[in-house]
Amino acid sequence: MSATSQPAGNYYDKYRTANPIARYLMQGFLGAFDALAAKVPVASALEIGCGEGELSIRLAQRGFRVRGCDISADIVEEARRRAADAGVDATFWQQPIESIDDANAAPLVVCCEVLEHLDDPVSGVDTLARLARPHLIASVPREPIWRALNLARGKYVGDLGNTPGHVNHWSRRGFLDLLARRFDIVEAKTPLPWTMALCRVR
Fold it and tell me: What are the pLDDT digits (tens) for 62-84?
């Protein structure tokens, strides 16, 4: 099973949620992303699994020339709407990570909240290493904290707190070890409940 057969997109809009706790957590996530992106020279960027386009928009507002793709056509349309509303120039299209070719390589590749959905995350990291010229920002949910927080709010109890579509689960160390197969870790951050890393391909 590939990522294209996994649930696509978010089960709710985490970037625009009204829940005060979720908003607080997302502020930490976005703050970590901004801090890592600020360490990368402004150039072009490719976001794989762009979702609603929020991270791509943040990069475009910093001056990056941004392109993004996602496996969900509906999500891609939403990303286009949000970029237009924000007044930024960003290109979005529908495509899964497995089929992205070298023509889409970029000085900065962003892949946040994607690898946990892939049946073959090692191959996914290999693809990221092929496309990053040379920087990558990647993130995944940090386990077991992610599932514990889901259980604490009464979500996915029958699946022990596992979010639908999450087929991989990493601790901070486990995720960094996965990335370290192909990348040097420049800096890692742990905004609750995620692990996020800025990497440079070897």
Answer: 999 999 999 999 999 999 999 99
Q: What is the extent of the structural domain holding 36?
A: 14-142+170-201
0.85 cut: is pTM over it? yes
Look at strands 106-112 and 132-141 and give their pairing: parallel
Report yes or no on 163 lying in a domain.
no
Number of domains in the chain: 1
Token pair 């649930």: residue: 7
Listing from the earlier edge strand, what are the strands of the sheet with 194-201? Answer: 90-94, 65-70, 44-48, 106-112, 132-141, 194-201, 183-189
d(CA 6, CA 14): 19
Residue 157 in domain: no
Q: How far is the C-alpha of 106 from the C-alpha of 13, rounded, in Å?
A: 27
